[in-house]
Amino acid sequence: MLTAEEKTSVTALFGKVKVDEVGGEALGRLLVVYPWTQRFFEHFGDLSTADAVMGNPQVKAHGKKVLESFSDGLKHLDDLKGAFAKLSELHCDKLHVDPENFRLLGNVLVVVLARRFGGEFTPELQASFQKVVTGVANALAHRYH
Amino acid sequence: MVHFTSEEKAAVASLWAKVNVEAVGGESLARLLIVYPWTQRFFDSFGNLHSESAIMGNPKVKAHGKKVLNSFGNAIKHMDDLKGTFADLSELHCDKLHVDPENFRLLGNMILIVLATHFSKEFTPQMQATWQKLTNAMANALAHKYH
C-alpha cells in the first residue's frame, strides 16, 4: 500500500504529533462538523456548542484513546486488517457504528494535521496520509457483517 | 435548499477576504491531482503531471486552479442560490466535460485542507464546519443539472 519512503515520511511526521491533543481535536472536530456523530457519545455530557465539545474532557480522553490506536496501526501498515480486527468486531457488534464514520474521522484527522503542520504537510505527505486513513477505515469496516 | 445563517456567511466572508485566490486555487487543484491521481485524466492537455513537483509547478494547473477558485468566490456572493449560480457550469461538467460529481466533493475537501494549512488560527472547528457545509453545497449545486 505504502512505499518505503511513504512509510518513513508518515512515521516521521506522526512522531511529532501530540497524540492526546491531536486525538481530542480530531474527535471534537468530527462532532462539530458532522453533528450526527454525537449520537454515539450521548453519555459524554455537554456537547451543546462547539466550545463545549472541544473543551469536553471525555471527548479529549476518548480522542486520545482513538489516536493511540491509530498510532499502533501505523506500526502495522502491512497488515491493517489484522491489526484492527478486534476493534472492527467491537464497532460492528457492540458499538453499531456506521463505517462511513471511520472515513469521516480519517478526513478530519487529515485536516487537523494540515492545520497543525501547515506547509510541512506537503501534497506528498497528504497523499500518503490519505492512503493510511483510508486503509485504517477499510480495516475497521472489514469485520462488519 | 441549503440555508446559511448570517454568522456562517460572515465567517466565510472573513476568511475568504484573506485568501490568495491564485495560490489557494492552484494548490487545491494540484493536491487533488496528487492525492487522487485518477483525476489527472481530465487534464491530459496540461502537459507534465508525472511527479508531485511537476504538478505543483505546472502553469496550466495553477491557471486552472485560479479559474476554479474564482468561480468559487463568485458563488460565495450567492450563497442563497448556489444551484442557480452553478447551473451553467453544472451542465458544462455533465454534457461536455463528463466529470463524475464525486470529484467535486474531493476538490472541496482539498480546498478545506489548503485553507487549514494556510490559516491555522482562523480555521477553528466552527469555521471548518461552515466551510464543509459550503463545499458540500457547492458540490451538490454542480451536480444538480446532471442527467
Automatic annotation (TrEMBL), chain A:
<comment type="subunit">
    <text>Heterotetramer of two alpha chains and two beta chains.</text>
</comment>
<dbReference type="GO" id="GO:0046872">
    <property type="term" value="F:metal ion binding"/>
</dbReference>
<dbReference type="GO" id="GO:0019825">
    <property type="term" value="F:oxygen binding"/>
</dbReference>
<dbReference type="GO" id="GO:0031838">
    <property type="term" value="C:haptoglobin-hemoglobin complex"/>
</dbReference>
<keyword id="KW-0349">Heme</keyword>
<dbReference type="InterPro" id="IPR000971">
    <property type="entry name" value="Globin"/>
</dbReference>
<dbReference type="InterPro" id="IPR002337">
    <property type="entry name" value="Hemoglobin_b"/>
</dbReference>
<dbReference type="GO" id="GO:0031720">
    <property type="term" value="F:haptoglobin binding"/>
</dbReference>
<dbReference type="GO" id="GO:0031721">
    <property type="term" value="F:hemoglobin alpha binding"/>
</dbReference>
<keyword id="KW-0479">Metal-binding</keyword>
<keyword id="KW-0561">Oxygen transport</keyword>
<dbReference type="GO" id="GO:0005833">
    <property type="term" value="C:hemoglobin complex"/>
</dbReference>
<dbReference type="GO" id="GO:0042744">
    <property type="term" value="P:hydrogen peroxide catabolic process"/>
</dbReference>
<dbReference type="InterPro" id="IPR012292">
    <property type="entry name" value="Globin/Proto"/>
</dbReference>
<dbReference type="InterPro" id="IPR050056">
    <property type="entry name" value="Hemoglobin_oxygen_transport"/>
</dbReference>
<keyword id="KW-0408">Iron</keyword>
<dbReference type="GO" id="GO:0004601">
    <property type="term" value="F:peroxidase activity"/>
</dbReference>
<dbReference type="InterPro" id="IPR009050">
    <property type="entry name" value="Globin-like_sf"/>
</dbReference>
<protein>
    <submittedName>
        <fullName>Fetal beta-globin</fullName>
    </submittedName>
</protein>
<dbReference type="GO" id="GO:0072562">
    <property type="term" value="C:blood microparticle"/>
</dbReference>
<dbReference type="GO" id="GO:0005344">
    <property type="term" value="F:oxygen carrier activity"/>
</dbReference>
<comment type="similarity">
    <text>Belongs to the globin family.</text>
</comment>
UniProtKB/TrEMBL annotation, chain B:
<keyword id="KW-0408">Iron</keyword>
<dbReference type="GO" id="GO:0020037">
    <property type="term" value="F:heme binding"/>
</dbReference>
<dbReference type="InterPro" id="IPR050056">
    <property type="entry name" value="Hemoglobin_oxygen_transport"/>
</dbReference>
<keyword id="KW-0349">Heme</keyword>
<protein>
    <submittedName>
        <fullName>Hemoglobin subunit epsilon-4</fullName>
    </submittedName>
</protein>
<dbReference type="InterPro" id="IPR012292">
    <property type="entry name" value="Globin/Proto"/>
</dbReference>
<dbReference type="GO" id="GO:0072562">
    <property type="term" value="C:blood microparticle"/>
</dbReference>
<dbReference type="GO" id="GO:0005833">
    <property type="term" value="C:hemoglobin complex"/>
</dbReference>
<dbReference type="InterPro" id="IPR000971">
    <property type="entry name" value="Globin"/>
</dbReference>
<keyword id="KW-0813">Transport</keyword>
<dbReference type="GO" id="GO:0031838">
    <property type="term" value="C:haptoglobin-hemoglobin complex"/>
</dbReference>
<dbReference type="GO" id="GO:0005344">
    <property type="term" value="F:oxygen carrier activity"/>
</dbReference>
<dbReference type="GO" id="GO:0042744">
    <property type="term" value="P:hydrogen peroxide catabolic process"/>
</dbReference>
<dbReference type="GO" id="GO:0031720">
    <property type="term" value="F:haptoglobin binding"/>
</dbReference>
<dbReference type="GO" id="GO:0046872">
    <property type="term" value="F:metal ion binding"/>
</dbReference>
<keyword id="KW-0479">Metal-binding</keyword>
<dbReference type="Pfam" id="PF00042">
    <property type="entry name" value="Globin"/>
</dbReference>
<dbReference type="GO" id="GO:0031721">
    <property type="term" value="F:hemoglobin alpha binding"/>
</dbReference>
<dbReference type="InterPro" id="IPR009050">
    <property type="entry name" value="Globin-like_sf"/>
</dbReference>
<dbReference type="GO" id="GO:0019825">
    <property type="term" value="F:oxygen binding"/>
</dbReference>
<feature type="domain" description="Globin">
    <location>
        <begin position="3"/>
        <end position="147"/>
    </location>
</feature>
<comment type="similarity">
    <text>Belongs to the globin family.</text>
</comment>
